[in-house]
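Two proteins were folded this term; both appear here.
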Amino acid sequence: MAKVELKQPIVQAIADDIKDAQSVVIVDYRGLTVAQDTELRKQLREAGVIYKVCKNTMMKRAFEGTDFAGLEEYLEGPSAMVVSKDDATAPARIICKFAKTAEALEVKAGVVEGTVYDAAGITELSKIPSREELLSKLLGSLQSPITNLARVLNQIAEQGGAEACEAAEEAPAEEPAETPAE
């Protein structure tokens, strides 16, 4: 069997991983301990993100003709790819957060929704909250006025209802009329 035939399934597996991917981040993993690598893989797996260490030539062949072809210039030295099909910013968020504790992990570059970013761009993208966080903030913003209205109505009810409020409004209106007469 020729070497090309042995490498073709590997290239195809990489191509399958990046097919329909929203983002791919390339990292340099040199210097990570086994414990750190295991922890990183665990965090990525929990987020539904694929992490693979592959040869650069294999990744270059898999990236040819795709949105990820712009990553070829960053494929030097040991490289691992982090792929997400669901959340476009998840790989950047997890990798950059993990890189704060594991200084050996270095972000090289990435492609998010068809745009190539260098390490600084990926770091900036990592600051974007996840989709779930953004939705919860939106929901909180929508619920806030309703919650405030409910609190006001509850306070009115605790103070004796609308009749007590009307009586309270009428009482101050009568007092100023009496004061100038004196």
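Next, the second protein.
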Amino acid sequence: MSSSPVHLVITALGSDRAGIVNTITRHVSQCGCNIEDSRLALLGGEFTFVMLLSGSANAINMIESTLPIKGAELELLIVMTRTPTGSTPVRHEGFSLAVEVPDSPRIIERFTALLTHHRMHIAELMTRAQPGTPAMLSIRIHAYGSSAQALADLEKNFQQLCIELSAQGTLQADGRQDTERL
């Protein structure tokens, strides 16, 4: 009889340098943990790596006790938290949002506020400023909600916000081929 795996979320932050990802993933493997999901980003000269690990209670205990030491050796800030299994909400009516908009303060907050207003959960958010005249901001969001009506209402409000901000945007429901282009 095997016990169910324990899950741990780890975030590592520090200066980017060659080999750092390999060192962390090797350490995770040596502790007997499995990387179930991960994201890596370079922001300026800083590297950030987020991982969802699974493993036996002993493996998770080992990574929790040894990773802070390895992080100190690598000059990384390490944050860890256990997360319950099966806690991921059911993702109904998922969609992807893509926007190109003239950059200005509060632009990202306007789109995240729109999603919050429609009770949508943001699963992924990526932004990138593009220099130029005018400077442009690219926003990519994957989100999900709980009803088809909420998504229909969101589409209408998304279009209005894009018009207000002089943005070009698409909102595409998962599994749907048509998109709204503004």
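Helices lie at 20-30, 57-73, 107-117, 148-164. The chain is about 30% helix and 40% strand. These notes refer to the second protein only.
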